[in-house]
Amino acid sequence: MDHTFDSDYWDRIWSGDRATAMRSSAPNPHLLAQAADLAPGSALDAGCGGGAEAIWLASRGWTVTAADIARTALDFGRERAATAGLGARVEWVQADLSTWQPEATYDLVTTHYAHPAIPQLEFYGRIATWVAPGGTLLIVGHLHPGQHDHTHRDEGHPPAEASATAAAITALLEPATWDVVTAEESQRTMTGPGGRERTIHDVVVRATRRP
Ligand SMILES: C[S@@+](CC[C@H](N)C(=O)[O-])C[C@H]1O[C@@H](n2cnc3c(N)ncnc32)[C@H](O)[C@@H]1O
What we know:
single chain; alpha/beta; Rossmann fold; 7-stranded mixed β-sheet; 7 strands; 27% helix; binds S-adenosylmethionine
């Protein structure tokens, strides 16, 4: 890794090619599948980027806090929510989630591919503490293709330190506190900028905090 995942890095990302791609980005399919049966309440999208997931949650009746370190991404999300008539349902918060502490807990804490400069599992452990009793934690993250097969060297994937396996994530969740509902690893094909297809390796962990 030849850079730090700090706010300058993420602002550069959101001001470059990614900005074009995120204008057409659809909400994450894992969120749609996992959150469809949840009763709306308060939600935090940790590392919300351009806001596709936060806006989808708002459209389903959730009151959403959308937090990200990159001002550029938040500005885009805010504008997009306003255009969708959902501006009042989403609060856009600029925060470094490796140090930020929310004032309240949430009925749903979700994150999609956020990887701050702190170790990935430490980040997941932090956001898990922000789930209210009876609430849901939904982690959608990168699974590095080499994580189970160390001979695998696939280019164009996020670095291994931004990834975690389902087993490593569920090991953070004490059985006395959490019911693990979903712990899956999967892959899907996505069409990126320029119509290029690429394979995305995902990890999805959904857990309910015991009341
Ligand atoms: C790979 S992008 C994913 C964005 C969005 N969730 C999505 O799925 O399209 C990772 C996001 O995490 C944000 N991020 C990285 N480090 C962060 C930190 N320390 N605090 C808050 N957000 C952070 C980045 O700005 C970026 O928007």
